[in-house]
Write a structure and sequence with these properties.
By secondary structure, the chain is α/β, with parallel strands linked by helices. The protein is 35% helix and 21% strand. It has one domain: Rossmann fold (3-Layer(aba) Sandwich), CATH 3.40.50.
Length: 271
């Protein structure tokens, strides 16, 4: 499938999800709107409810970690959230940066940006902004941010090298990122790799953990560290939509793993 077609699928799926509650997203990808598949997008997510700044209206259950927890954000920092959705991580980050910092969220799905801005209006915060843009080519200035965060988004980006190159570009020298994402151990069956619906559900767009970390290193980041790792169990009934029972048994036998990792990396101060 062409890259632009994949991006359109992601926009369409997450546009539908933006109109739903977290509870609806836990029951299906499309909730009451008439479902296109039975993918529960919240199976990847961690619990945000105890974090300062948590905004229930912005929590659609779409993450796969808690990047702000490991991002070493300081008061006064300028923070960028990639694939900011309804604004969940932005509101948490804003609690940390305080009045003197600023948080920017970027997303390419119009419905998500609308939802995020409606959530922002209710808070009265003046130092959060949401912009429309593609992570592979962000409409943001060089050397602008102290910290970049992202939660279960880069696995949806077709060209991860471009994405991490852009992260490097927009970070200030000495700045760093903290990203939660989905990676693999072992090779996915071909049918899963080709499944666009599973791509939008964060699985078939994922790459091997070693490849993912190598891409980060290739872009010039240092001090790369995996802060947290957990295995994600995809229900058999979902996998069987894409592969046969024999393939599923082989999938389990070969111990192909789908993992959420939270990883940090730093842009050298000398650059």
């Amino acid at each position: 499938m062409k890259v632009e077609d994949l991006k359109l699928i992601v926009q369409d799926k997450y546009g539908q999800i933006a109109s739903q509650s977290k509870l609806q997203n836990q029951s299906s990808c499309c909730g009451s709107t008439g479902c296109c598949d039975d993918m529960d997008y919240s199976i990847f997510s961690d619990d945000y409810t105890k974090l300062a700044g948590y905004n229930s209206d912005a929590d659609l259950g779409l993450g796969c970690g808690l990047p702000t927890q490991y991002a070493e954000i300081n008061e006064g920092n300028h923070v960028l959230d990639l694939g900011s959705g309804a604004g969940n991580d932005c509101f948490v980050a804003r609690t940390i940066v305080g009045e003197t910092g600023h948080v920017t969220g970027i997303d390419f799905t119009h419905a998500m940006l609308e939802k995020a801005n409606k959530n922002l209006e209710k808070t009265g915060f003046k130092n959060i902004s949401f912009v429309k843009g593609d992570i592979e080519q962000m409409p943001l200035n060089d050397n602008s941010f102290d910290v970049v965060v992202s939660n279960c988004v880069l696995n949806l980006v077709p060209d991860k090298q471009k994405a991490f190159s852009e992260i490097f570009r927009v970070l200030k020298p000495g700045g760093h990122f903290c990203i939660s994402d989905v990676v693999l151990t072992g090779e996915l069956p071909q049918k899963l790799q080709e499944a666009a619906e599973m791509y939008a559900g964060c699985v078939s767009g994922a790459v091997l953990k070693e490849e993912y970390l190598d891409i980060i290193k290739q872009q010039g980041f240092t001090d790369i560290e995996v802060k947290k790792e957990k295995e994600i169990e995809i229900p058999n009934n979902i996998l069987l939509k894409y592969i046969t029972l024999d393939k599923l048994r082989a999938f389990k036998r070969e111990k192909v793993g789908i993992y959420s990792i939270t990883v940090n990396g730093t842009k050298n101060e000398q650059l």
